[in-house]
Every structure is written in C-alpha cells, then in structure tokens.
Protein: Aminopeptidase N
Amino acid sequence: MHRRLIAPGALAAASLLLAIPASAAGFQPGAPGIGDPYYPYYGNGGYDVSHYDLRLKYQPQSDELEGTATILARTTQDLSRFDLDFLLDVSEVRVNGAKAAFTTSGQHELVITPATPLPKGTPVTVVVRYSGVPSTKSAYGFTTWHRTPDGAVAADEPESAWWWFPSNDHPLDKATYDVSVAVPDGTQAISNGTLQSTSSKLGWTRYTWRSAKPQATYLATLAIGKFDITTGTTSAGIPVINAYSKDLGDNDGAARASVERTGEIVDWLTGYLGPYPFDSVGGYVPNTTTGYALETQTRVYYSPKQFASGSNTSVVVHELAHQWYGDDVSLKGWKDIWINEGFARYAQWLWSEHEGEGTTQELADYVYASHPADDAFWTVKPGDPGPDNQFDTAVYDRGALAVQALRDAVGDDAFFAILKGWPRDHAYGNASVADFQAYAEKVSGKPLAALFDTWLFQPSKPAASAARTAAVARAATAPVQPRSWKQIEATNFVHQG
Ligand code: TRP
Ligand code: ZN
Structure:
C-alpha cells in the first residue's frame, strides 16, 4: 500500500510539480527481487526499465571490461531507494543527472539511493559507470562469464547479465538495447540485433548494435573474439548475420553447414509460428568449451560442441523456435519454462518429420515408451518443475509430449491455429502456462484443465489414450528409436554440465 504525501485537492494542480517531498517519508525502498518464487532476488521492485544503453570497452588479454550503462526506467511506486542486479565495480551512479549514493548487498544487489526520492510513475534516468574483470566475480559460488583464447562470451540462463551490465534481471522487465563495444583492432564484438556502425580509432574498433524490440535481460548477449562474419537475407527479407570463431578447428565446417541454414529454417518456422518477430536474425559460434546452445534474441549462441558429431540443423530449429516461444513471448515466472522448452523441443519434432527422420507421433510414442512408470522422469512436472529441475530433460521431452497430447485432444486445425496464434496474441510480452491453457481453450472451444493437469502438473506417468494403446499394441514391438532422436537429445548438453 502506498500513502499519499499530499491530500488530493490540497494543492492546485499547477503546483503539483513542486510537490517534491523534503524528506523520504512515505517513500519506500524497492524490493530486492521482482517476486519470482524460484529466484527470490532476481530482478527488483519499484521500477520498470524501457531501454539499456551500454557503452563498453573490453580488453581480451586482461579480461578488463569498463563501461557506462544509461538505463531509462519509470518508477512503479514512491521510491526512496532501488536495486540493480550487478557484480562489477561501480565508480559512480547518477539518477536524473545528480550523483546518487550506492552500496552493495546480498549476492548481486547494487543498492542505489538517489539524492531526491522518486515519485511513482515518473521517468528516471540512471547512469552507472563501472569496470572490473568479470571472470573474477561470482555470485552463489558460480560465474557464467566464459573467457575464450581470444575474448569472452556472456550467454547463459537464467543468469548472464550480472557480469557485464547492471539490470533489472528478470524476463518480466523487457527493454530495448543499444550495445556499443570498443575492442582492439582485429577483434570483433557481437551482440543482438542489427549492426548500426563500426568505427576505428587509435587501435580500437567500436561495434554498435541495436536490439529494437523488447528483450529479456538473459537474452542479451555479448561475444568478443576473432570472428568470421557472414551475411544474408531470408526469403521474407529479414537480414541474417552469423559469426564463427576463426578458431573452431575441426568443427568449423559442421558449424557453418548448420548455422548457415538459419534463413531457410526461419522461413520454414514462419509457416508454423507466424511472421518472424524481429528485424534481424542469426547465430554465433565462439571457441568456448561449454556444451549448450542458447536462444539469445536475434543472435543465437551455439557451443562448438553442438557440431562435434557433424552438422546439426535440429539445434538450429530449437533455438530459432525460441525466438517466438521464449523471446517474443517471454515467461512471466521461471516456473513457466515449459512454454519455452516444450515448444522449442516440439519444433524439433516437426523438423524431424519434415526431414523424414521420424514423425512427431513416432517421437511422442518413443518418449512415452522409453520411460517406465517408475522412472524419475515422470516425477518432474513440466508445468512447475522447481528451480533445481528447471532444465531437466523431462521439461523438454515430457513437455513436448504434452504438446502432442494437446494436439491429439483439439485436432490439427485448432492445434496449428494455437501454435501460430499464441505469438501474435502475446507479442513482445510475457505469459504463463495458465495463460496458454486459457488461450488454447479459447481457440479450440474445449475445456482443457484436465489435460494440462495430467500432462504438466502430475508427478506420475499419464495413462495412454485408448487410441494410442491400441496403436502401440498393433505394432506389437516397442517403438523403434526415430532416426532424429540422437541429434534432438544432443541439444540437451546443458544437462550434462
Ligand atoms: N534454453 C537453452 C535451450 O534449451 C538451454 C539452457 C538451459 C541453457 N540452461 C542453460 C543454456 C544455461 C545455457 C546456459 O536452448
Ligand atoms: Zn531451449
């Protein structure tokens, strides 16, 4: 509850502008977390960011990053103090032009006290000057800043921003970005969106990127290194920018043979998911030792290991499907992760069918049959898996099985209308599993509470539908492993640490 400082009508409207309080009485500190039960301190309360302007300089040899972040926000309460999530060393903070006091608290809170308290609903500009060696910083005992022989990469989920820019670090607070990075001549800096300019001066080259549609903080990415950059255009006219480390060794050919198919795959996904939601697309493959891929907005991150067994278009499909399911429509809370991973995995199943390597039904039957009822797989509830199981294989595979169960229940016409309509209905916003169920019920005209409960929220193996039991019985033998299976599962490197 917030108290008014001035009784309504006590002052003429014209003098309300002068109603800046002399003290912070009635003004409260913003919460140190945005209110996500999985991660109580992620994000913050009291304000909403609309834009991040990051002007950075990075020295690969020493891993020194320095920068100025200019954050445009609006207060959502009468605010005496507020937090940003950040780990680097701050030298100065200004709020609306004036120097502000700051300190640190907890694992990753930068606590800022403006000289003048901030009334609810007003625009605020926060400037943070900082520097530091990201690889030396940790929170909860880990770091997600990955150094490479020629640079570094910020790409992780859910934590990635703390090591390179101060933020309201939760998908609920999406914003646009301008990221401008100076690196030594001969080195490149890759980020999201379109490359607005490059310029070189006194041995430093500055790359300026723009991500002009709302973007969650974990989907902001930065890669510094020696890259070979390729460009193209999708059939729909979306510019494609890909980047490959010059140091991919034997994985170089397979990486390019996969990621260079981005335009084709975006065109194919458009048929199922609707128009591509952003003004640029592509991926980058740095020379990291990590194993996973990540759906960083417009510029997907791929570990070289994803291509160690040869080309892999399935992982490209997965990460590009996230551009609609996860990036355009982002989760409201991390418990809603099924909307990201269940659908990105289902897109891989559709691609498998398209490639003649196993139909979605064959993949669903295989997942169902491969996990006996007493397998711990069925104890993970994709609709609310808990923070420790957020990226468990079950969120993906049982999650995609739930998508297939929905398709079986509503029929293909309604199912494909839901698949394509959802990103349009919630464009650039946030949504929950409950929102998805409501949308699916609206489009299909069918009550779906029992289906969602069975497939997403029960810690046990759902009974097969009568039709499926009969079909599997007719086949007499256990479902064979679809040809696409191993490649699809290889997307799950994150589960192997
Ligand atoms: N969202 C990623 C994907 O499925 C996987 C992922 C989960 C991940 N946790 C991560 C990637 C941590 C990098 C770091 O595409
Ligand atoms: Zn995914």
About this structure: The domain at 330-489 is CATH 1.10.390.10 (Neutral Protease; domain 2).
